[in-house]
Amino acid sequence: MSVKHYTIPVFVPELACPFQCVFCNQKKITGHINIPGTDEIKKTIAEYLSTFKQSRRIVEVGFFGGSFTGIPIDEQKKYLEVVRPFMERGEVNGLRLSTRPDYINREILDMLQDFGVTTIELGAQSFDDNVLLQSRRGHSVKQIEEASDLIKSYGINLGLQIMTGLPGDSLETTIFSARRVIELGAVDTRIYPVVVIKDTALHNWYFNGKFIPLTIEEAVFRVKHIIPMFEDNNINIIRVGLHPSEGLLSGDELIAGPFHPGFRELVYTEIWHDILKQLSPDKEKCIKISVPEKEINYAIGYKSKNRESLENSFKNVSFITDKDLKQRNYKYQITPYII
């Protein structure tokens, strides 16, 4: 049995963040408005642990949604201390947190290391200084790089989050950012297409015609170019697209942009579409395509897009799984159509 990795999320929206990036309203994006107390955090951890079925597992508690290391040291310790008993009992194996690159230094890392922090995710968003400036991030590419190197020097896993569709961004800068994530030695990443959220600077810019978000098709096109880059370098892709919070799903907080609850499936559908369109058509023959077990839904495609596309090229199309096939590999068999 393989080892299952679980992360128990604790959301601390906008806690200690001194900047209001043009795209950001964390309370609306995450669907979490109140900063949780210690008792609430204990309850959350216990409830998640009770649902985990697999015995061979690695469990991290993750503090997300804000700039965790910008909180005063005593406050950080208070939150981290809540997790310590769970770690001492072996119920939790480590801590994960998200923060800003400019809120990392040796004093902070010394403390985090003492509390057993195993992964730090930096909100890099872009490795283009012009994009960072236009997005009002308040830090530079150099600060991302320095913080990344410092985190790794402590033996802590590095995560880097990037966005596509920010002001001044392009396909080329998105690809460049993905390349830097790889070069800096991140073990995992999150990829977010920019959407316009209510009560943000982008909301005003969009209303005044100063910002045009990507379409779903444009965002999928960009992200499908960087997914294979991460996969080829064994970087775990934790998330593709925003978490579908209630406000985003209802549309109450979403003004415009490429939000889709199945965004990841859309991207992987297009990756498989590019693979399968290389098949030579034969409208008088049947084709049976074998694909890896974990990828059959993507191969068939969102709302059967890829199957329907192939049905224009073959008399009959079927998909089956093959547990021996590696990722993105496939086999096919073409046979005569028998009435």
Describe the structure.
It is a single chain. The N and C termini lie far apart (45 Å). 38% of the residues lie in helices and 23% in strands. The longest helix is centred in the middle third of the chain and has 17 residues, at 216-232. The strands form three sheets. The chain has a seven-stranded parallel beta sheet, with helices on one face. The protein has a three-stranded mixed beta sheet with strand order 11-10-12. It has a two-stranded antiparallel sheet with strand order 7-9. Helix 7 (171-183) links the parallel strand 5 (157-164) and strand 6 (188-193). It has 339 residues and is an alpha/beta fold.
Coarse morphology:
globular
Distance between the termini: 45 Å
Mean pLDDT: 91
Placed side by side, the strands forming the largest sheet appear as: 1-2-3-4-5-6-8
How does the helix and strand content classify structurally? alpha/beta
- The total of beta strands comes to 12
User: Measured on Cα atoms, how large is the radius of gyration?
Assistant: 22 Å
Largest sheet: 7 strands, parallel
What's the multimeric state? single chain
Strand content: 15-25%
Detail the poorly predicted runs: 28-32
In sequence order, what are the helices and strands, one letter per element?
EHHEHEHEHHEHEEHHEHEHEHHEE
Count helical runs. 13
